[in-house]
Amino acid sequence: MALDFAMLYGSVREDRQGIKAALFIKAELEARGHMVTLIDAQEHPFPLLDRMYKEFEPGEAPDFMDRIAEMLKRADGFVIVSGEYNHGIPPALKNMLDHYLEEWFFRPSGIVSYSAGVFGGVRAAMQLRMTLAELGMPSIPSLFPVPRVQQAFEKDGTPVEERTRAFAQKFLDELVWYAEALKAGREKGLPY
User: What is the reported pTM?
Assistant: First the structure.
C-alpha cells in the first residue's frame, strides 16, 4: 500500500548537514513507492509561537501555515529529522511542531536524529519521543541515529557507506508497518 509521509526538518543553520540525512530517508521511502513531502523550517519561517494554527480564524493564518496544515492532515505518518543542539531539540523544529495539534493525531512518527559527534543526536531523540507522544503522534520504537553526519552522506543524500542503507531498512520497515496499522485503525474510527 502506498503511503503519504510528511517529513519535518528543523534546522535553519546556514551550513546545515542534517538535510543530507533527510534527503536519504526521503529517497528510501520514495523507492518503496511512498510519497514524501519535505517540510523544511528554513523554507517556512514560522514566527515564535504566539497562536497555534487552530487559534487563527479561518482565512487569517499565513498562507504557508494553511498549506502545511493540509499536508499534515493528508499524511499517514511523519518523519521528524532532528539535530542535537546542546543535548536538545533544535528550537526551529520545536516551534514548528508546536504550531499544530489535531493535524498530528493518531499517526506514527519516526525519528531521524543526527549530530557531528558519535552519539547521533540520540539525546535530542529522547526528548522528541516525549514531545511527539504529547502531540498525538507517538514515535515508533526504532530510531535512525546518524553519528558524524557531516561525513555520512554526499551532498545529495547518498550514503558514503553502504551499511547506512542496510541499517535504515529496519527503521523504514517499522515506520511503514505502524503507518499502515494506524491508517487501518483510523478508517475504523477514532477512540473519541
Answer: 0.96
